[in-house]
Amino acid sequence: MRVRDILRLKGNALYTITPEDSLADAAQAMADRDIGSLVVMSHERVVGMLTFREVIQATVKNGGSLAGLSVYRSMDPGPLICTLETELDEVRRMMLEHHTRYLPVIDNRQLMGVISFYDVAKAVVDAQDFENQMLKAYIRDWPEEDAAPAATERA
Predict the structure, then answer these.
(1) What is the distance between the alpha carbons of residues 69 and 155, in angstroms, rounded to a whole number?
(2) What is the pLDDT along the chain (155 residues), one digit of tens a residue?
(3) How many CB atoms within 10 Å of residue 97?
(4) Bridge partners, 40 (sequence order)
(5) Could you tell me which residues are beta bridge partners of residue 111?
């Protein structure tokens, strides 16, 4: 399975923000949409990633307040990315190795979507469920063998 397959199932909703926006506006957008990340865009290019982790860290450093904080000063300016052709196993490895929950998906310098740890976990569970159903169907349709083996003659 590839990232392309996950995005096809997930849909193509994109939530972005600019570096100049306030962190309070970003946090409000994340809360309103019940999302954990925003892709930071400038001049139609991905320049960073803002997740709830960065919002919390910036808030704590600012004495518990979002006042006066910008997305630019709080975002991750070098997020890991993947492409439409990245294999799911590679995405899992990247997320686990770098302790990241969200990866922007880039194709020809264009933002195509965001893959979350949840999306990856769901894809894995769905694939395992499908495989289990196929195995159960195969076992249920197993051809019956003769009830008793043929007796051998003794001389």
Answers:
(1) 97
(2) 899 999 998 887 899 999 999 999 999 999 999 999 999 999 999 999 999 999 999 999 999 999 999 999 999 999 999 999 999 999 999 999 999 999 999 999 899 999 999 999 998 888 887 777 887 877 777 666 655 555 555 55
(3) 9
(4) 17, 48
(5) 106
Structural domains present in the chain = 3-140 (3.10.580.10)
> Closest Cα partner for 4 from 76, 72, 86?
86
Three-class SS of residue 43?
Answer: coil
Write down how long the chain is.
155
- Judge whether 39 and 114 are in contact, CB under 8 Å: yes
Q: Which amino acid is at 87?
A: E
Burial of 84 (0-12, 13-18, 19+ CB in 10 A): middle
